[in-house]
Design goal:
10 helices; RNase H-like nuclease
Length: 298
């Protein structure tokens, strides 16, 4: 990766919650030198998933490294399939995005309820109300967090506590965010390069999307996993300083979604040219096209 490959750094804290406008969605953008700043939608105080998609398609600055806080795929390598035993199980991540979007075509606001309630797909998920699908623990997973991608095993080795993207229950779950995010990724129609699904190394120019995990940015800023969430401007500025960033200019209470986005944008800028993060040892072509990877996972 050449120095100064990217000119802008955008972190998106995503949400899979039901409904149109989501308080859990936050976007933060920074340039190569300035402070990260929050972006706001033009006609509403809260972002919708559709508005984020529109921003990426029409308003994204050139040569932006975009970090999405969601899982861009599901576990595949552990069982040789996303949904072993289902004839319609996709062969790679892009086919998975297409399947999720097709099944959820009638769900408004890029929702994914139709997929998690699908008569076959639902068997692989843990859902609310104690509804754990018969295939959630497909391989006798030794812990309650469900099946992991290879990158989630790497996250755990780095000190994080990931949960399976097949888990849709609890404050720490990212399954709903991941499925709704897959709908957005499919609707980008290949207009943005998604690393590493589209290739093990990003192109020499243009914008690139990567999966991020905001806890990795927090750990890099000397926060512990248990204290990864930041909720005031002073603590945020201390963390930003650890990442070589100017202060945010915010004071008082800051919601943790905004803080995650601001800190992650600064972290992306700090590590965009780190060759090791683009070349994790376990990332093969097959892993890349099926499961993807989390940028920053060793």
């Amino acid at each position: 990766m050449r120095t100064n490959r990217f000119r802008h750094f955008l972190a998106i804290d995503w949400s899979g919650a039901a409904g149109e406008r989501q308080p859990g969605i936050a976007l933060s953008l920074c340039t190569a030198e300035g402070s990260p700043r929050l972006l706001h939608p033009q006609s509403h105080r809260r972002w919708s998933r559709d508005a984020v998609l529109d921003y990426l398609l029409t308003d994204l600055p050139p040569d932006t490294l975009v970090g999405l806080d969601l899982g861009i795929s599901l576990p595949y390598q552990d069982a040789g399939a996303f949904f072993p035993g289902w004839a319609d199980s996709p062969c790679d991540a892009r086919a998975l995005w297409r399947l999720v979007d097709e099944i959820c075509e009638s769900d408004p606001h890029l929702g994914a309820r139709s997929f998690v309630d699908h008569p076959i797909a639902s068997a692989y998920f843990r859902r609310h109300g104690g509804r754990e699908g018969s295939r959630f623990h497909l391989l006798g997973t030794p812990h309650r967090r469900g099946r992991f991608r290879i990158t989630e095993n790497a996250q755990e080795r780095a000190g994080c506590k990931p949960y399976s993207n097949f888990n849709l229950v609890g404050a720490a779950q990212v399954g709903k965010s991941s499925l709704t995010g897959m709908r957005m990724l499919h609707r980008l129609e290949g207009r943005l390069f998604v690393w590493p699904v589209d290739g093990l190394y990003p192109p020499a120019s243009g914008s690139v999307i990567v999966e991020i995990y905001t806890a990795i940015a927090a750990l890099a800023a000397s926060r512990s996993v248990g204290r990864s969430k930041i909720r005031d401007g002073a603590s945020l500025d201390v963390a930003l300083h650890k990442l070589g960033s100017p202060p945010s200019g915010l004071s008082g209470i800051v919601d943790d979604h905004s803080a995650d986005a601001l800190l992650s944008a600064a972290w992306l800028r700090m590590h965009a040219n780190d060759e090791a993060l683009w070349r994790p040892g376990e990332l093969t072509h097959d892993v890349a096209r099926t499961e993807g990877w989390t940028f920053g996972a060793p």
